[in-house]
Amino acid sequence: MITAAPQEREHYLNASHGLKSWLLTKDHKRIGLLYLATITLFFFIGGAFATLIRVELLTPQGNLVSSETYNKLFTMHAVSMIFFFLIPSIPAVLGNFFLPIMIGARDLAFPRLNLLSWYLLVIGGAFSLFAMIAGGVDTGWTFYTPYSTTYSNSWVIATALGIFIAGFSSILTGLNFIVTVHTMRAPGMTWFRMPLFVWANYATSLIQVLGTPVLAVTIVLLFLERVFHLGIFDPARGGDPVLFQHLFWFYSHPAVYIMVLPSMGVVSEIISTFSRKAIFGYAFVAFSSVAIAVLGFLVWGHHMFVSGQSLYAGMVFSFLSYFVAIPSAIKVFNWTATLYKGSISFQTPMLYAFGFIGLFTVGGLTGLFLAALGMDIHVTDTYFVVAHFHYIMVGGALMGYLGGMHFWWPKITGRMYPEGWAKLSALVIFLGFNLTFFPQFILGYLGMPRRYHVYPAEFQVLNVLSTAGASVLAVGYVIPMIYFIWSLRYGKVASANPWGATGLEWKTSSPPPVHNFEETPVVTHEAYDYASLMAEEVEVG
Amino acid sequence: MADHAPAETLALRVQFDTEAQQKDASTLGMWLFLITEIMFFGGMFTVYTVYRSWYPDVFAIASSSLNEIIGALNTGVLLLSSFTMVMAVRAGQLGQRKAILIFLILTLLFGGIFLGVKGYEWNQKFEEHHIPGQAAFHLEGVAPSDQGHAQLFFSIYFAMTGLHALHMVIGVGILLTLIVQARKGRFSASYYTPIDVTGLYWHFVDVIWIFLFPLLYLIDRHLVK
Amino acid sequence: MSDPHEQTHIDSVGSYVKILLALLVATGVTTAVARLDLGAFNTVVALSIASVKMLLVALFFMHIRHSNKLTKLVVAGGLLWLAILLLLTMTDFATRGILGVPGK
Ligand SMILES: [Cu+2]
User: Does residue B129 lie within any of the structural domains?
Assistant: First the structure.
């Protein structure tokens, strides 16, 4: 194992210098960091919109912004957070950095394509940012026709074009990952020795490759209708706006799994590492990722129960939706079984993993309420739905992302983050999150509709609670920003394997050399083989 | 392999161990890309299926206003270009540099002819006022109340043939690059992957047209006569 | 996944010419058949001929004949997903209005 001091040793961060060496890099690790900077920017932009929304909702009257502005706020919050933060988050940052290392490869299969993918995200982001600055977009992130094609006077095309371009970034990243997993595994790295994080990213990539093109063509049709008046979804000519919704949700339901599957992969790594046990039922957890990816494509119509879709289609989609719960539940049960009789330590990543399991479970179970045809009609377009998907996308996806950032921060930077502050902020985030979004379940059940900034006075208490929670949450997000940056200079120097974990990424130095390993690793153990690792430690020790 | 890996070549980039591994990766990458293309066009085939099932009679009349003989001949041109493309790949396999160049140029030529004919057909539509969204739109033989449905047919026609043509234009661009490289003698029997994967792309675009032709030109022609 | 045969398989010019001729003939046939009244079978015939043409191009020009299992799986997967998109969308459009309830 390498123990030389990091400042003397050459690694991917100090191998070359200057802006050009970053902007033209083909190193998957540096590209991962470029993504990190980009999506962090969009996280704070989306966060700023969320702040304005929550401040507006403090009072029942719409006295901070106009209705039009409010429409733009929630639209741009969602566009920033979904397309430019959550979708690229774990795959493009942590996946980019660690997927090749975890299978013992020197890089992704197509490094130039990888760099191009980042530029596409930046260009797409620039278009959407331009639209936000120029006057914003007010259609909702779903761009439903005919409002988006005919009536909206906002920057629909610039925003949609931005999403279209960012979509190709997502497609190409997925394509790169799939090819890498198939062709670049190190000797001995069989499919069933791959870490579950790699399996999760592989399954995610399948969705990116199969789903995103349908979003792309839907945006093209929207563009043709708005700009060239082709009227493909225009009811005046016999077209059907519900058809637009079918195409949109064919991508956008699976897109939820693009956000949450990689988090599940992170959680598997963390749970195993900090209970020092192999993941219970490894093969089931691996296959459940693929099962979620596949089943996720069969359920999109549950977003359209009140759209005018046929009742029979609604029944089919409602029925199929329940099947997605099975592989999700398998994961939760297997993580819990892994903890059983493990030697558990409560480091920060583990706190996030626990947070993920709890919040994802709440989000998933309320998802079952919503998949039930009759129940959904009652709560459609209420805050119940808002709360549900924030439990999945913030409570689930974002918790996993933050857990992964803490888990791998020592490897990425060669420095430890301050454990005390990190634990504190994890706790603040968990409490702030629940205070923000739990009241919204009640609000929705009581009948408060989403996307309105004026509401009856009796809903004010719960809204004030939610806004208070959002303030706590904001503090929770700012603390890690500060200590991560602080740690780059003042953090304790990290060893190659600070957690005593088994993955290949911990067998190379921190930070890793340019081509990841001094020599190509040969894999002789199953994944998470803590049993024999601990046996070795006993022998040596 | 250590950091000081041997200088990388076109046929063996630094991230790969063997040339065969790199070729496998390129081929798989292109096939996955074609899958994304299937889904991209798939969205439009879905739109087509829905509206044709809703308005079969109007679609039959609108379809019959296209000239199917020109369509069939143009299909033949495109099939010819696929043939010359596969011959270019074959020349690559055999390392025949001159033949590579000739067949790539022929493919480019046939592709260009296809696009030219397509442009002519589009121009016809403008002259016949078969442009959806324009006030002057009128399709003969369709009741005034159904003119909207006829517009939907032409919307689909322009969207599908337009995006197909866009893919052809991109293909032509790639072919031009290949021709420049082939002139420099960059390809050989041990390195012709770019020709190979371009071939896959070109044939795929051909396959899309193989379906567009009957779906757009040949709908229920017998009903209309 | 590397298949040593993949590199060595070089088809003859004659086989490619034969495929080209078959494709051109099929194009002629489908254009001619469109003029006959086969009822609902016009669409079936047109799509069948198109599928045969697709198979010829894919198997011979795109060399799927010589490809490894993974490539075949990728292609099959793509077609399956296209079928999912079409079929599940059509569950809606094929059953609209059956109940006679407006909006369902
Ligand atoms: Cu959904």
Answer: yes
Q: Residue B190 belongs to a domain with what CATH number? A: 1.20.120.80
Q: Are A334 and A360 in contact (CB under 8 A)?
A: no
Residue B130 lies in a domain: yes
CA angle A502, A503, A505 (to 5 degrees): 130
Q: Is A7 on the interface with B (CB under 8 A)?
A: no
Which of B1, B39, B45 would you mutate first to test chain A, the one with the most A CBs within 10 A? B39
pLDDT digits (tens, 9 = 90+) for A242-269: 999 999 999 999 999 999 999 999 999 9
Structure tokens at B40: 């991209």
- CA-based torsion, C19, C21, C27, C32: positive or negative: negative
Evaluate whether residue B66 is within a structural domain: yes
Q: Could you report the per-residue pLDDT of A12-64, keeping only the tens digit for each?
A: 999 999 999 999 999 999 999 999 999 999 999 999 999 999 999 999 998 89
Q: Which residue has the tokens 């540099």?
A: B97
Token pair listed for B90: 């074959």
Contacts of residue C104 in chain A, CB cutoff 8 Å? 308, 310-311
Cα gap B38→C78, rounded to integer Å: 7
* Rounded Cα–Cα distance for residues A387 and A439 (Å): 8
Distance from the A176 Cα atom to the nearest Cα atom in chain B, whole angstroms = 7
Q: Residue A4 and residue C5: Cα distance in Å, rounded?
A: 47
Give the residues across from B191 on adjacent strands: B188
Question: Total domain count for chain B?
Answer: 1
Task: Spell out which residues of chain B touch residue C75, defining contact as CB-CB under 8 Å.
Answer: 31, 35
Ligand 1 centroid distance, CA of A384 (Å): 14
Question: Alpha helices, DSSP H only, in A57-155?
Answer: 67-81, 87-88, 96-102, 111-134
Per-residue tokens: A294: 């596949």
Helices (H), A142-240: 156-183, 196-228
**Distances from the Cα of A465 to the Cαs of A11, A53, A427, A441, in angstroms?**
48, 14, 18, 12
Residue partners of A398: CB distance under 8 A and separation at least 6? A86, A89, A263
With a CB cutoff of 8 Å and minimum separation 6, the contacts of B191 are B10, B11
- Using N-to-C axis directions, what is the helix angle for C41-56 and B193-217, rounded to 10°? 170
Residues (pLDDT < 70) of chain B are 1-7, 225
A312 part of contact set with chain C, CB < 8 Å: yes
In this predicted model, what pLDDT tens digit does every residue of B150-205 receive, in sequence order? Answer: 999 999 999 999 999 999 999 999 999 999 999 999 999 989 999 999 999 999 99
Across chain A, what does the average pLDDT equal? 94
C98: confidence class by pLDDT, cuts 50, 70, 90: confident
**Whether B37 and A213 lie within 8 Å, measured CB to CB:** yes
Q: To which CATH superfamily is domain A2-7+31-540 assigned?
A: Cytochrome c oxidase-like, subunit I domain (1.20.210.10)
CA dist., res. B182 & res. B186, Å (int): 6
Domain residue ranges of chain C, discontinuous segments joined by +: 12-66, 67-104
Q: Which residues of C touch A248 (CB under 8 A)?
A: none
Task: Please report whether residue B145 resides in a domain.
Answer: yes
The residue of B207, B211, B224 whose CB has the most chain C CBs within 10 angstroms, and thus the best one to mutate to test that interface, is B207
The C-alpha of C89 sits at a distance from chain A's nearest C-alpha, in angstroms, of: 7
The two most distant CA atoms of chain A are separated, in Å, by 79
